[in-house]
Write a structure and sequence with these properties.
With 428 residues, the protein is mainly beta. It contains 5 helices and 19 strands. The chain has a single domain, classed as Porin, CATH 2.40.160. The strands form 2 sheets. A 16-stranded antiparallel β-barrel has the order 1-5-6-7-8-9-10-11-12-13-14-15-16-17-18-19. A two-stranded antiparallel ribbon has the order 2-3. The two termini are 21 Å apart.
């Protein structure tokens, strides 16, 4: 499926969504229909989508919305629809008051630069009672506040969630089991969410090379407290992670003897324990909102240890929601040495060692280390349809790259990046 085909589908669905008389909740697409007074039909269908265009001020590399995408706005395309555009469909089956199932399929740009639909959710849910339920199958990876709606642009105020936090963990699915237990705490409600499982995600690595992130023994633990217009959450996650695809690079380092083997051992990602910590809070009394998140991932190796955070707020007036966001990401790499000592090698090996060091430096510099100011507005101009416009100014730290993918020879580190983004989000 090409993006042109998807764009036609989006246009048709957008027209239907704008004129629909259905009672779709404008904030979300619900998989759980238990709040409906009358018994729901056994099968229901819904969906959502985004059609967006992004322009980048940098033309020596591509800005992407996640490190799992191969290209985007900048070098490959002056204006790119691949950064944010997607369309999704969801089927929910309500077998009884206790048993239900949901399947969600999303079509968006993938690591092979195609729009082949992928299975985003596929799980069976059992409700022991109104406060305790268990899901088995593929569910969202609960590491951020908008974990279940991060692809549902209509549910979020921005064109896209701040990547300084939301791309700390590009993997967003868990195959396994999760449970939720809700109980009253004072005037509010506390929800405990526990998940265990595994994941596999393809990602672009070296030019022309596709790698795979394998997450095993995944554990996700979240506490969410809600009271009135306010909510707060804390999260801890861990996994044993293996990244395949960089073996040729590290095998070549191994060929340089003990010094190269030490580098390969420091930077390879084989059954590596990764810990993630996150805190978030929001306050939304309907006519305005403020929200903030902080996340930290202890990964080491060539990805380093990374921290991201943002603060965002907006005001709703007559269908418009202007907003401002400030976000930052920092990184620290603790492994040593950083590369081969070229001066200590025979002259005949110096060119190969220099090239290896350059490739390793490229991987190390691909980590986000930046500060971004975003200003935008959302216009809810039709039922279940929103138009968004956003400007981003990013200042990139020395030694880091301003964009994710398809960097061209001589691409400088540091500097600034400016983005213009326009999108239409809808649900149906």
């Amino acid at each position: 499926m090409t993006f042109q085909t998807v764009a036609v589908l989006i246009a048709a669905l957008l027209s239907a969504a704008a004129n629909a008389q259905s009672d779709v909740d404008p904030g979300t697409v619900r998989a759980d229909q238990s709040l409906i007074a009358s018994p729901p039909p056994m099968f229901t269908f819904g969906g959502f989508g985004t059609f967006g265009e992004v322009h980048s001020s940098r033309h020596d590399g591509d800005y992407t919305s996640t490190s799992l995408k191969p290209n985007g706005a900048g070098y490959s395309h002056n204006w790119s629809s691949d950064v944010d555009s997607l369309i999704a469909g969801q089927i929910t089956a309500n077998f009884s008051s206790q048993w239900s199932a949901v399947v969600q399929v999303v079509s968006e740009q993938d690591y092979e630069n195609s729009y082949r639909p992928s299975l985003e959710w596929a799980n069976v849910k059992y409700k022991f009672d109104a406060d305790f339920d268990v899901r088995i199958g593929r569910t969202p990876l609960d590491t951020v506040m908008s974990n279940e709606t991060r692809k549902l642009g209509y549910a979020n105020p921005w064109v896209r969630p701040p990547l300084e936090v939301y791309d700390l963990v590009p993997v967003i699915r868990n195959d396994g089991l999760d449970l939720s237990y809700r109980h009253l705490v004072g005037p509010g409600t506390n929800t405990l969410h526990l998940a265990v499982g595994r994941s596999d995600s393809d990602l672009p690595l070296l030019p022309g090379t596709v790698g795979v992130i394998h997450g095993r023994k995944q554990l996700i633990l979240t506490e969410l407290y809600e009271q009135g217009f306010a909510s707060a959450r804390v999260n801890y996650s861990r996994a044993n992670v293996t990244i395949n695809g960089l073996e040729p690079l590290f095998d070549t380092f191994n060929a340089f003897g003990p010094a190269g083997a030490a580098i390969a051992a420091n930077y390879s990602f084989d059954n590596h324990v990764v810990n993630i910590y996150a805190v978030g809070a929001s306050y939304d009394p309907e006519n305005w909102f403020v929200m903030a998140e902080w996340g930290h991932i202890q990964a080491g190796s060539f990805t380093g240890n990374n921290t991201g955070w943002y603060v965002s707020g907006g005001y709703r007036i007559h269908g418009f929601t202007p907003y401002l966001t400030y976000a930052a990401a920092t990184t620290s790499t603790t492994t040593q040495p950083a590369g081969l000592n070229v001066a200590a090698l025979p002259p005949s090996l110096a060119p190969a060692a220099t090239a290896l060091n350059a490739e390793l430096d490229f991987q190390l510099a691909s980590i986000r280390a930046q500060h971004t100011i975003s200003a935008g507005t959302r216009w809810d101009f039709a039922r279940n349809v929103a138009l968004k416009f956003q400007l981003d100014h990013t200042r990139v730290d020395a030694g880091a790259h301003a964009v994710n993918q398809d960097l061209q020879p001589g691409f400088p580190t540091g500097g600034t990046l400016n983005l213009i983004s326009v999108s239409i989000d809808f649900v149906f």
